[in-house]
Amino acid sequence: MEKPINSATIWLILLNCALFVQGERTKDKMYQPILGASCFRRLNGTHQTGCSSAFSGSVGVLHLVNTKADLDFLLDTPPAPPYAPMIPPHLFTRDNLLRLKQAGPANISVVLLINKPEQMTTFSHELNCPNQYSGLLRPNSIETVTCDARNPTNSWNPWGTGLLHEDFPFPIYYIADQEEIEKLETCFKDFNLNYTTHAVRRLCAVEVKSFMSAAVNTEVCMRRTNFINNLSGSKYCDPLEGRNVFATVYPRNSPENLDVKKKRNANPNEKFILVTCRLDTASMFDGVGLGAMDSLMGLAILTQVAHFLRQTLPPQDSLPNPYRNVLFVTFNGESYDYIGSQRFVYDLENKAFPTRSTQTTPITFDNIEFMLDIGTIDDIANVKLHTLKSTVLANKLLQQINSYAKSPQFGFGLNIQSDVSHHLPPTSAQSFLRRDESFPALILNGVPANKFYHSIYDDVDNVAFRYANTSQDFTTLVDVSDAKGFQADSLQMKVRNISSIVAMALYESLTSKTYTGSKVASPLLADEFLYCFLQSSDCPLFKASSYPDSPSGLPLPPMRYISVLGGSQESSGWTYRVLGYLLSQPQVNVTKENCTILPLQYFAGFNGSGECRLSTQNYSSALSPAFLIDNYDWSSGNYSTWTESTWTQFSARIFLRPSNVHQVTTLTIGIVVLIVSICLVYIINSRSEVLFEDLPASNAA
Amino acid sequence: MTLPEFFGCTFIAFGPPFALFIFTIGHDPVRIIILIAAAFFWLLSLLLSSLLWFAVIPLRDVLAFGVIFSVIFQECFRYIIYRILRSTEQGLHAVAEDTRVTDNKHILAYVSGLGFGIISGMFALVNVLADMSGPGTMGLKGGSEFFFITSAAQALSIILLHTFWSVIFFNAFDTNNYLHIGYVVGSHLFVSLLTLLNAEALYIATLLPNYIVTVLTGVLAFKVAGGTSRSFRKFITCQ
Amino acid sequence: MDISKAPNPRKLELCRTYFRTGFAFLPFIWAINVCWFFEEAFRKPAYPEQSQIKRYVIYSALGTLLWLIALIGWIIIFQTNRAAWGATADYISFIIPMGSA
């Protein structure tokens, strides 16, 4: 129902609105909200990056940019600035963005990125060298030795624009939904065409609110946040903080004495093969960005390897060395200067991993036999094993890997090449190598082929994933000849193949025996895993690895940005459960009632009936050591210093912006009315005795 | 509405009442009290009409019903103020420093009418103004960009009309001039019902008759208060 | 209180008290003193206490002026250099700006 809006009866409307909210408010006639995702501000030890609106929101006149000429028009001869260009992804280039930045907030106040990817070929806002200023550094330099930023074609992200590390003076808002784009375009076409009269008429404009409290760099905003005079108690920024998830293939049998006062001591007998990957991803916009190819592939492979080893390995005491174990770690915050792995290394050095609360002995570097780091696997036909130096260990493992990769028995038909150089991929192993270049780290990494690295478009389509939804049991290994209906070139089969190769090689190095079985990793598990992380948390694998009948996840993929303390931490939570489920051993004799104390844990299981299992997984903190060390020198570059600014809201709305002529006219009329009435009333009042002549004499004053 | 628009509209609607207040009301405490008392009585009438609107559920959507009853309530309260002021005239005469208030009975009418007008004008416009905070103007989903300026002009006419009506109304009860009473109630109803046309954005169709009525009522009030065409000529020619 | 109705010695006493209180880093008291007794000191016909009142009023005015200059100077220096001073500026601020250096 539409309520009329008028002055004499507006009080009635007031009552309508206040009591029943039936009527359409005047505001609703003027503004229309636009849903989207905003770019926000992050800070490191020396810089601020990202975007912020003005305190009360930034307003710009909508302008649809279809070609570069449209952009030139806005920048060279803007008729009624400030403007808000709506840019499709193929024009969202470094050149164009820097030109917009240079035009300044007086000309360009808002930038809208609209989801029209038809002409897009590449879209990556990460640097050519991800984590360029951390990892293994050049001597006496703050830049990494493992990548040459001056030679982008040979870098780890050749398509990178580096916009993620720029500071923009305007908000950037990403509008994904086609309906919302339609709203914007309609408004633009209805009101903003015919540019010659822009200056004198009302125009369709957009207001974006995304004001960021923090500024300058992490040092300044942390100082202000911790400031004793900070009366309001307001936070300016929070460190990027999350959780690493780790699990072992065999339960650790190395209890620690519980005396808190005693120094912690490692168990020198324990030997671990460290298998690691990255848990998080990054993108420019809040809550968007799945990192399908840039990091989820690694996580999928690690999960498959863990599952395969759990299923095939003999009991620990029948191994040649009964103290050997495999430690799987997924590092969080690796996109932001290796937060998780830096903290892991720091904890190992301080004998703080795992924490005392796990009641197991700490692990040190001496316990680690070698580290196999799974990096980005963009193309499985083109994977290399990277090492800093040629070692016996690396050669042996490569030989083992290739023996399975090329084996006619399995028919994987792959060949893993070796790369021994300083040209190491930007993965967690760099944090270990930085501490000690002779650390036995082997990195399995694909040749860069991801044109959407760390972007909103690194999604289901980028990895060509199609959920098969077979509803078959994904918890068992399958025979190599049984493809379960998957095409040989499907993503599920690719994950199966590379995971099986890695897992078999690890099997051989643990047992000192060749893997002779015919079972390989299950493509069904890959299917379910990728579905959960790419399309919906309400999925069979997540259900199976939760407590029976626990509330199911949202029908959205989990957020994989590390975020801050108190953030969603969805991806580490789900990874914890999935690793816990796949790496645990069923305890048939334990009832549900007795299955409450860790490491015993109750899972729903594939068919949801519930099963008690002996689990090994746990969390460790992924907060950069920079925030633990007193008086840390923020600009030293030793540890990651990324923080995220706080904000109060993200919103965008469109409306008509009155022309300056109209505003000035209204104000002038008002002032004239005021002055005229003051003069008139003064004259009438002072001469009222003339005007109202038949008043009693005493009234004349 | 942007800041310049906000001030423009505020000045249009409340500039003339503000001028009237500082030159004719502000210097005398008794007049201020009467002004505020009148505003209070208008609020009471608003309360009653909203209670009625609240109680009669089937007619909630029929805006004309609410308008008619609110006009009747407002006129009833105008009568109540009239009775109260007339019965307290003696007391006022005793306390007032400036005895013009009680000597000229039109002043009481004028002051209470202005109180009525200011508060109703405020209710009419402040909600519009408050709802408009932000950088936009009317028109995204239809509506004229002159909406605010029209609302302000309408609020001004209501303020002036209330002042004139009170002068005519008080005098009519003093002199038992039922024609004038009928005119006040009738023109009030007419003007209020006219604003219902704003739903169709017929701003000219509402504003023009509105101001014609305002001028006519102003002339009538001028005559009632003792003005004549001769005195007006004298005033114009500065004699 | 209506200063014109007070006896002359009372005026002098008030003026002196205000002047002395101003030394407790309260320049507003001096400013008020100037406004309040300006008429008494310079406009009224002469009376015995007037010369002393005049002196206090002049000193109060001088004090106010000094404070004004000092405060304006400090505000200009502080606002123009706040970002450059970094941590020091933050430590002497009560209200730290949001979203800027």
TrEMBL record, chain A:
It is a single-pass type I membrane protein. Its main location: membrane. It is found in: Membrane. SUPFAM superfamilies: Zn-dependent exopeptidases. The chain crosses the membrane at residues 664-684. Keywords: Glycoprotein, Membrane, Notch signaling pathway, Signal, Transmembrane, Transmembrane helix. InterPro entries: Ncstrn_small, Nicastrin. GO terms for cellular component: plasma membrane. Residues 1-23 form the signal peptide. This is Nicastrin. It comes from Drosophila willistoni (Fruit fly). The gene is Dwil\GK22490.
TrEMBL record, chain B:
It is a multi-pass membrane protein. One of its GO terms (cellular component) is late endosome. Keywords: Membrane, Notch signaling pathway, Transmembrane, Transmembrane helix. The chain crosses the membrane at residues 6-25, 32-56, 62-81, 107-126, 146-170, 177-197, 203-225. Pfam families: Aph-1 (PF06105). InterPro entries: Aph-1. Its main location: membrane. GO terms for biological process: amyloid-beta formation; membrane protein ectodomain proteolysis; Notch receptor processing, ligand-dependent; protein processing; protein stabilization. It is found in: Membrane. Coiled coil: none annotated. It comes from the Eukaryota. Belongs to the APH-1 family. PANTHER family: GAMMA-SECRETASE SUBUNIT APH-1 (PTHR12889). This is Gamma-secretase subunit Aph-1.
TrEMBL record, chain C:
GO terms for cellular component: gamma-secretase complex; late endosome; recycling endosome. The gene is Dwil\GK22972. Keywords: Membrane, Notch signaling pathway, Transmembrane, Transmembrane helix. The chain crosses the membrane at residues 17-36, 56-77. GO terms for biological process: amyloid-beta formation; membrane protein ectodomain proteolysis; Notch receptor processing, ligand-dependent; protein processing. It is found in: Membrane. It is a multi-pass membrane protein. PANTHER family: GAMMA-SECRETASE SUBUNIT PEN-2. This is Gamma-secretase subunit PEN-2.
